Amino acid sequence: MHSDWTKGFFIDKAHLFLRIMNLHWEVAEAEAKGIAKILSKHGVSKGKILDLMCGNGRIAVNLAKLGYEVVGIDFSSLYIEDAKRKARDHNVEKNTRFVLGDIRELDSVVNESGFDAVINVWTSIGYYDEKTDEEMFSKAAELSKDNAILVIVNTASRDSILRTFMPRSISCWEDLVVIEDHEFNKFTSRMKSIWIFYERRGEDLIYIDKLELNLRLYSIHELYNLLKKASWEIIETYKSLRTLEQGGPTDPINIVAKKI
Predict the structure, then answer these.
(1) What is the pLDDT of residues 84-118, one digit of tens each?
(2) Which SS3 state, helix, strand or coil, does residue 30 take?
(3) CA 107 to each of CA 80, 96, 111, 118, 137: distance values in angstroms, whole numbers, following the listed order
(4) Interval 159-189: pLDDT, tens
(5) How far apart are CA 15 and CA 101, in angstroms?
(6) Where are the alpha helices (DSSP H) in the chain?
(7) Sheet containing 48-52: which strands, arranged edge to edge?
(8) What DSSP line would sit under 86-114, residue for residue?
(9) 217 with 189: CB under 8 angstroms?
(10) Burial 16-53 (b: 16+ CB within 10 A, else e)
(11) For the packed helices 14-23 and 25-41, what is the interaxial angle rounded to 10 degrees?
(12) Among 60, 78, 119, 213, which residue is least crowded by beta carbons within 10 Å?
């Protein structure tokens, strides 16, 4: 089930990725407004939203500031506690609820239903296998109202990744430098990545630690079939949340689906 890497990445060494998550708060308000614009277009200008794999709440909190009620679920206690703190800091405690739990047990962890929309942000699929993803979205559909909207955004696309694939890449996040080494398995469509974290001090790089990812990358047509089995049908794709320009076959995954 490829679950060992998720425990290492999001629980045992959750503090490492939290640093990157916190930097993403700089664009979280704009991302949330883009999601809200999509939801409003499809009749969800208010109501309850289920945020699958919410991290430390950057989208949930900002959607709550726009008037939505948001329930976020994540299995990292560090992220959930940080999300609760940020909800207090942004005065949206009453509009948010953050639940510690495994997405694979969504139906037993989230003890309410009637969601108007479900969101899944920043490549929060493909952690385990296709069956697990199908079950996650199927359970989310069961918790949602008829004609509810599902939004999956800022998600790695198999076609997009392979079009520009590099075995090594480097990302800089203020004083944090991350070197990523990638291997792609064409038979399983899984990409294994080793992230090596360094602290930049002047001209020196100080080694911190490393993390491993093992993602199942999807193409749009694969997600279309998977979601249909889970009672969702894709109705729109976008190139980006910023422009809401129509998406092409090799763009990152930004899709809107409706419960069927």
Answers:
(1) 999 999 999 999 999 999 999 999 999 999 999 99
(2) helix
(3) 18, 19, 7, 14, 11
(4) 999 998 999 999 998 899 999 999 999 999 9
(5) 18
(6) 4-7, 14-23, 25-41, 58-65, 77-89, 106-109, 130-142, 158-163, 220-229
(7) 96-100, 69-74, 48-52, 115-121, 144-155, 253-259, 232-237
(8) HHHHTT-GGGEEEEE--GGGHHHH-----
(9) yes
(10) bbbeebbebbeebbebbbbbbebbeebebeebbbbbbb
(11) 70
(12) 78
pTM summary value: 0.94
Assigned token pair, 211: 């993390």
- Other beta carbons within 10 angstroms of residue 252's beta carbon come to 19
Q: How far is CA 174 from CA 56, 78, 179, 208, in A?
A: 19, 22, 14, 15
- Burial of 194 (C-beta count, 10 Å sphere; 0-12/13-18/19+): middle
Amino acid symbol at 209: D
Compute the Cα dihedral for 57, 62, 64, 68 and give only its sign. negative
CA-to-CA distance for 20 and 123, rounded, in angstroms? 14
